């Protein structure tokens, strides 16, 4: 209904009260989330938090025990067939056919999507070029690198131009360069207006790609919001001042009367209360005779967020 | 298009995929479905056949042992394709391919239909090849055209049943090794516990009962119009409900 009534921010996914248990083990314990069309939504959490279970439920692979879910305007339970027609899934485990060449894999998807013959050929060529797989098109994925395999996997998902794409840990196990390639691919998809539900264990990845992040822990969403908003909730913003010599550090510490000293590195960390204005203020108070070598502004990253919202166990271990 | 058209189209797509797979794995398939039965044919005909043929004595009425052996070897050629079928299904189930298909608007039965269809084709090609080798080593069928049609029908029906059984084994197992292990008795052991190599009459009672009831024996017996003149030791007391065996093709062991 949302699709029809609210054109400005149409809803791609709407989930309430989602529960799933395997025997005694509760995997999802009442998850609710809403994803707008064209949004990149990241589910962030450690292994076993329930990320993949959410993806498997929303992509019609397994039924939920309780709760309601609407995907692109279709009820997940009543209209699974229609849901399958508009989604694309790239799972954690490579779902390419190892005995078929890259090109044949794409054409197979085209056939299963009932694309016309010339249409699937054109789309396959387009995707091979876009994902830098032209040279490998006639080889089987057995000869591919991990990054190439993942790109082929995603290209297969895109054959049918899905409007909602599930990416379950799309960069797990990739080297840094392949990871950045994959990030660029995901950003390009967003440019085309595709909605993406991404799961990741990498805080940096969610920060980089997502419009909104839900932090998942033990089957519950423990925090949700845009990356910036999540970071603001966490104390710990500060300036890091590095000095040329110990005398300057001493002088600065006396002058400012606040902050934490790291004598070995000649560093003083000063709390940041008001952004750039506060930085200018700090520097003015130090005056010209204190030799500041370097200044950096430290905002809390998602690691800080994660440890702050997912409970104490990890925190205690860290401190 | 209707659902049925989609189902047919998807199944055809999956069958095409299986045929491509078979071509890629050709050497492997030739060994399991053609080389093994041919080696058994040659071993039993040339090495053991002299003595066994002699031992058959009156039962043989002068027909060469190879005429007794070939129908069973054909069934063995069919069974030799069970392993690859189960393995292919297991690989799809465990490798994530099936999850991909299940999140697409693809007809539910298409994947298995493709596997079974591909398996059936492999089995028929293997039986044809083994029949060719059998003719080369002196197999001289006396069957009429109608008998040949019956034989092809029986081999196809038996293949169809075994293809589904293999696919079911492939669905049950969680690893390629398990799929291979579970189909091994089908393709290797069962032919021995049947009337493939010798009549069941001289087997110990329990084994004989098993050998007469399990699938290979009735199918073998039914394929025997190829050697219609072969005089059986006795007619099976049991109605062969466990194997495909049209009445027209019923012959004694």
What percentage of amino acids of chain B are in beta strands? Answer: under 5%
| CATH H-level superfamily title of the largest domain in chain A | P-loop containing nucleotide triphosphate hydrolases
Amino-to-carboxy terminus distance of chain A? 49 Å
Mean pLDDT of chain B: 78
Low-confidence stretches of chain B: 227-253
Helix content of chain A: 25-40%
Q: What is the end-to-end distance of chain B?
A: 51 Å
Assigned CATH architecture of the largest domain in chain A? 3-Layer(aba) Sandwich
Query: Which two chains touch over the largest interface?
Result: A-B, 29 and 22 residues
Number of domain units of chain A: 2
Rg of chain B over CA atoms, rounded to whole Å, is 19 Å
- What does the main sheet of chain A amount to? 6 strands, mixed
Number of beta strands of chain B: 0
- Helix-strand sequence of chain A: HEEEHEEHEHHHEHEHEEHEHEEHEHH
Alpha plus pi helix count of chain A: 13
Shape of chain B: elongated
Describe what this molecule looks like in 3D:
- The complex is a heterodimer of chains A (319) and B (253).
- Chain A is of the alpha/beta class.
- Chain A has 2 domains: 2-232, P-loop containing nucleotide triphosphate hydrolases (Rossmann fold), CATH 3.40.50; 238-299, Alpha-Beta Plaits.
- Helices cover 39% and strands 27% of the residues of chain A.
- In chain A, the strands form 3 sheets. Chain A has a 6-stranded mixed sheet with strand order 6-7-8-3-9-10, with helices on both faces. Chain A has a 4-stranded antiparallel sheet with strand order 2-1-4-5, with helices on one face. In chain A, strands 12-13-11-14 form a 4-stranded antiparallel sheet, with helices on one face.
- Chain B contains 10 helices and no strands.
- Chain B has helices spanning 3-24, 26-56, 65-79, 82-94, 97-102, 110-136, 145-172, 176-192, 205-213, 216-222.
- In chain B, helix 6 packs across helix 7.
- The interface between A and B is medium-sized, with 29 and 22 residues.
């Amino acid at each position: 209904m949302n699709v029809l009534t609210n054109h400005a921010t149409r809803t791609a996914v709407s989930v309430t009260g989602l529960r799933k248990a395997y025997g005694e083990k509760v995997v999802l314990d009442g998850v609710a989330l809403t994803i707008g069309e064209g949004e990149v939504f990241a589910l962030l959490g450690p292994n076993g938090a329930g990320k993949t279970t959410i993806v498997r439920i929303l992509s019609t692979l397994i039924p939920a025990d309780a709760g309601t879910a609407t995907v692109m305007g279709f009820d997940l339970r009543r209209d699974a067939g229609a849901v399958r027609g508009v989604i694309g899934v790239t799972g954690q485990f490579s779902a390419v056919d190892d005995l078929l060449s890259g090109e044949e894999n794409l054409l197979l998807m085209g056939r299963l999507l009932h694309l016309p013959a010339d249409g699937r050929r054109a789309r396959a060529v387009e995707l091979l070029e876009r994902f830098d797989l032209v040279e490998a098109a006639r080889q089987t994925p057995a000869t591919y690198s991990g990054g190439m395999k993942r790109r082929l996997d995603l290209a297969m998902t895109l054959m049918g131009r899905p409007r909602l794409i599930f990416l379950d840990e799309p960069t797990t196990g990739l080297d840094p360069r392949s990871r950045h390639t994959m990030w660029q691919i995901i950003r390009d998809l967003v440019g085309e207006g595709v909605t993406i539900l991404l799961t990741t264990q990498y805080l940096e990845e969610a920060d980089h790609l997502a419009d909104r992040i839900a932090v998942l822990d033990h089957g519950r969403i423990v925090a949700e919001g845009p990356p910036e908003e999540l970071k603001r909730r966490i104390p710990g913003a500060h300036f890091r001042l590095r000095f040329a010599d110990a005398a300057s550090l001493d002088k600065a510490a006396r002058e400012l009367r606040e902050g934490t000293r790291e004598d070995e590195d000649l560093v003083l960390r000063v709390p940041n209360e008001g952004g750039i204005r506060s930085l200018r203020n700090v520097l003015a108070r130090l005056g010209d005779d204190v030799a500041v070598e370097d200044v950096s502004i430290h905002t809390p990253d998602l690691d800080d967020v994660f440890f702050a919202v997912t409970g104490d166990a990890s925190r205690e271990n860290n401190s | 298009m209707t659902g049925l058209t989609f189902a047919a189209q998807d199944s055809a797509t999956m069958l095409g995929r299986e045929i491509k797979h078979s071509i890629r794995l050709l050497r492997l398939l030739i060994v399991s479905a053609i080389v093994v039965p041919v080696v058994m044919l040659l071993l039993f005909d040339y090495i053991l056949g002299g003595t066994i043929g002699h031992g058959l004595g009156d039962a043989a009425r002068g027909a060469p042992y190879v005429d007794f052996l070939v129908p069973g070897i054909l069934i063995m050629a069919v069974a030799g394709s069970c392993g690859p079928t189960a393995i292919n299904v297991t690989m799809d189930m465990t490798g994530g391919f099936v999850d991909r298909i299940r999140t697409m608007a693809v007809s539910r039965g298409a994947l298995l239909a493709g596997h079974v269809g591909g398996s059936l084709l492999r089995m028929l090609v293997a039986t044809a090849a083994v029949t060719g080798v059998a003719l080369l080593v002196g197999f001289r069928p006396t069957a009429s055209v109608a008998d040949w049609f019956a034989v092809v029908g029986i081999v196809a029906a038996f293949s169809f049943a075994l293809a589904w059984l293999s696919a079911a084994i492939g669905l049950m197992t969680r690893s390629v090794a398990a799929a291979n292990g579970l189909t091994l008795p089908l393709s290797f052991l069962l032919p021995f516990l049947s009337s493939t190599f010798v009549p069941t009459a001289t087997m110990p009672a329990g084994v004989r009962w098993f050998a007469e009831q399990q699938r290979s024996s009735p199918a073998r017996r039914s394929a025997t119009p190829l050697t219609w003149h072969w005089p059986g030791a006795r007619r099976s007391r049991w109605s062969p409900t466990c194997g495909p065996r049209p009445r027209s093709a019923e012959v004694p062991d």
